[in-house]
Amino acid sequence: MSTFTISIDGRTVELEPGQTILAGARRLGIDIPTLCYLEKCGPLNSCQVCLVKVGGPGPGRLVPSCGTKAVPGMVVESETTEVHEARRTALELLFSDHVGDCLSPCNRLCPLGLNIAVMIRQLEAGRLNQAIVTIREALPLPGVLGRLCHHPCEQGCRRGNWDDPAGIRDMERFVTDENFKEANPWVPICAAPTGKSVAIVGAGPAGLAAAVSLARQGHAVTVVDRRARAGGSLRDVPEATLSADVLDREIAVLEKMGIAFKLGMALGPELTIEGLLLGFAAVLLTVGELAAGEGAGLGVALTGAAIKADPNTCRTSIPAVFAAGSAVKPAKQIVRAMADGQAAAVCVHRFLLDKPVQRPEKPFSSIMGRLDPGELRKFLQTASSVGRVSPCDRCAGLSRREAVTEAARCLHCDCGSSGNCLLQHYAQAYGADASRFKSERRSFEQFVQPGGIIFEPGKCIVCGICVRLTELAREPLGLTFIGRGFDVRVATPFNRTILAGLQQVAAECVEHCPTGALVFSDKLTAAPVDASSPVPVA
Amino acid sequence: MPVDLQFAETTVARFGRQPESLIPILQELQVHYGYLPQEAMERVCELSEITPAAAAGVATFYDMFRHKPAGKNIIRVCRGTACHVAGVGRVEEALRRDLHIPADGDTDPEGKYTIEPVACLGCCTLAPVMRVGDATFGHATSETAPETVLEHIASLSARTAAPSTEGRHTHVAGPVAEIHVGLGSCCMAKGSDLLFHALQESAAACGGSIQVKRVGCVGMCHRTPMVEVTVPGKPDAFYADLTPGQARALVERHFKPHGLLHRAGALWTRTLDSLLSENPSPERQIAGYSMSRRDPGVRAFLDKQKHIATEHFGRLDPLDLDEYLAHDGFVALRKCLHPAPVPKDALDPAQLIGVMEASGLRGRGGAGFPTGQKWRVVRGHVGEVKYAICNGDEGDPGAFMDRMILESFPFRVIEGLAIAAVAIGAHEGIFYIRHEYPLAVQRVRAAIKDLEERGWLGDKLLGSDYALRLSVMEGAGAFVCGEETALIASVEGRRGMPRLRPPFPAESGLWGKPTLINNVETLAQVPWIVRNGAPAFAAIGTAKSKGTKVFALAGKIRRSGLIEIPMGTTIREIIEEIGGGAVEGHRFKAVQIGGPSGGCVPARLADTPVDYESLREVGAIMGSGGMVVLDDTTCMVDIARYFLEFTQNQSCGKCTFCRIGTKRMLDILTRLCAGKATRAHVEELERLAHQVGAGSLCGLGKTAPNPVLSTLRYFRDEYEAHVAGRCPAGKCSALIKYSVTADCTGCTICAQRCPVAAIPMTPYARHTINLDLCTRCDTCRKVCPEDAIEVN
Q1: CB contact under 8 A, B694 and A482
Q2: pLDDT reported for residue A525
Q3: ipTM score of the complex?
Q4: Which of A198, A368, B133, B640 is most solvent-facing, going by the fewest CB within 10 Å?
Q5: A481:B495 CB<8 A
């Protein structure tokens, strides 16, 4: 038989006999999610997230695309609401039996999404030059936040369920301050210039955060403020709490990023929004909390005293004009104002690229919930048992030794596979709700193997790839499915350790595990790719 | 204690070193050691090509394998549908309580008793059923079950077991008086084997040539043990519900003792009996058990039936090959073979397949795929090696047709499989029979052996030049192995996990070869069709569903049993006429058809005819033929929960939708039964049910939501009542309360019998129930002579 064609979502693709629907979709560049598919293993048809709808007479049926061979004239639907809903449900079902947090609770609670566990591992390993990159990846003014943040991260720290939460803010300050001692403090790298320019009115926390975000995307950013120095309300903080020096050197980093500051200028008859729009492709208003009547002259619609902005798009009543921060909704916490500025920056960025304007989605994470004391003890096995180290009142933050001691207290309760996990990736892409099905969860288990493999059976989705790989490699013991139905687990036969079953193909199994069930422990110290980085959304 | 590995070694030597010997080897180890010691399994792996991964995977997949030693006595409690609605849960509770088996274990601390749930023992008409060792007990109650178990165990040590009825029986040819005793496994559970031996003794004592004959299932399970007396020249006489003690009276009623000595002896004992008892003479008494085919109940039960798969039911000794031959046995197969002389009406395979297609026969295992078409596809695939498999893995709880057919008509099913093999060109046939049906396995094996001894199997099928070898493989306890691709995996010695179809087994089946898999009942109908012709079969039934269908009728019904009816018979005719309607004082509410893949058809749709399409339209499926009647005491939410628990428990665990989806559906149903669900939960249940149905890989998962969807469709009010915290049927124990009404006379019986001391003894005063202690076991309500216990 020679080649033939099938249609997927109305597009025609030519296939060889014996090829699957998945092969056709990939040829068309359609990203059908797969978890259990590895070419070498052949179709295992266990995860069922690669479902597509095959038409024909009757209502059509859902089939796994990885194992279904295409036949001439087949009509396939992939990117439709119905198919996506089925795939999403498969993902949500997997999460309902997935014991683990993709992101540590501190990371999830940080309004700016700092990957705290990674930062702490870098600090503990003495790689401060990496730690500052991790910090500046998420935080616009870490020197400020290291002193003023109300650290919601520490409220969620699992270590706090044992003794005291890790001193996250102190460690963050330590890393930042140490970096400023360097001859050339780290300056975040900006993307190639886009040729687009943005004016940000207001150099407070929200405006500066937005400026950093937009500059990193390659846009030309100009910050306008009525005060003589950038910082907005941060300039009102008592010197003892936040010295002007600290703020100045943070602003200096922003200037090095290419952000221009026009200070001592306020919106008014001379500087109008219309005027700004003549020179800039977009304007972001982060003018801070407005007193009654103060906003009347701005020319944008108001709600009460505040600027009226769409909560989903940050757009004001004037096209190309956005607003964020306390000017829209008074924020008590600096970190929240910054997060709002950052979100508005994403909206502006999308606007500038002619993409649908929307606030960024929250990074997806599976959520394990409360740990019982036994589970907590498993995490404590790899952490230091000493109590929390806090800097004395007169000290300027933690000493190096104190910082490392404090870092060793981290339980590393994030997932070693986060950012590298297919399950997490597709959950984000499909907007899966990890807690759609509430139920009693399995107990958290972790087996740290000599030689560096960590096996967490609760994260296993029983895809069967590792079982098949051991079979193909004729491992003397190998891995197998134990039990049946909901209780089926992957394990080594005869209650032996996972390592005993993986004498030849350990690396291969870890590499191809679609979740974090099998990871190398040294993977934990590497900086994972940011989970919220853009993913191909269908 | 070190495990003696000698047995493991000899077992490998016996079954061979190849990977597919794994399941039979493990079965032997299980029987020998009582569980699977790890040392023994490791030894097996060392000695054979079986890998540790395969051994550990298979050993933990199938239900029959234990991994810890069991107690001295194993009590198997049936969890089938009929047993569930008859309250087996309370029986199990009582057994656990009285035998001191902890809630989180299966064996008592002294290691005397192990309780094992079984998906279905296939004795649904005797529900609730338990099996102690080899003995089956029907109609168990929470009050009597523990005592029955203990008595039986005591009697086992006191005397030797009853002689088997399974030997080869020799029958005298020619006109002779016969006493037929039904010896199916459910008849035996009601003591027909004991009656059989008693009748043999009495007949021998009587002298003369009376033949006491074992026959297959009679179908009228509600009247077992049943006996038929045939005397040449006289009308046949039937007796029902007999006990072994009545054997002598029965024999004497029909046969005058031969010889002076016998007659005198009989007269003397009779006189003595009448002196000693106030009862009427045994002969008069036995007349009370007599029944006739003309009795309205019997006629209602039998008249609507048409026996094809069960032809000559209740007449044939299952293992008497000559008798089978005398009743047209192997006539059909002979037509399909070409031994000299070639029969006039011989059929070549193409013609044979044509006959099957014209007959309109569709698979009786559930899905209803046209049998002739299936044969044609397998025949169309060229290949030296092909396989024909008889699917006897009847796993639907509430269904036992295939067990009965295999037990009663083993030669007929063999003939059907042989015809199928000839049609497709297979030279190897396999019976895959679930191990929970020991008698069926035993009889099929005996029948195959008999045929081999005559030289009719092997190189020369029925003396022709066609080679056909048959073997029997016992399942190891996994419902999913009824699915074709899972069954094949199991035969190959692997975990019974289905794979994606296509390719269908017809193209790539056992060992990758073209394979035909037909259900037991389908094959049992084949010889009749070949003998009587396609038009005769196609004349029965409806436009798209031809012929007859065997149903296991059980549950809350007056006349339960095994029936074979023409397609198109309505549910009402089956339940009200054949089955005699709901039990006295109750209302027929719905009928569950098709087991875990089927649905509940409400009473108002009882005029639905039984055919594949009509049943599908009302949300059920034909399934394999289990029909469990539900009445007003059955909670429909509980029934849905029951089935989801079953499928969840039997899911192979491969695909996400079935493995986790059915579990999440069960979570919601459990919440509902506990009164902890909201309306949103019901909506999620329905949504998920559709998604599990659409997204699962195999038929088990795809049909698992049907019991939920059909009860939501017809009994949504019951779901809503549960959301509101009420169980209208008074079944869900978390939602019901027991109380004592003013009718209480203070007799203290309830207080004495309450197993958890929740009723303080207050003589001559109205009793009260401590609801914190009460387990809702229902004992007080059952024992109260004044009907003074109220449930609400």
Answers
A1: no
A2: 47
A3: 0.92
A4: B133
A5: yes
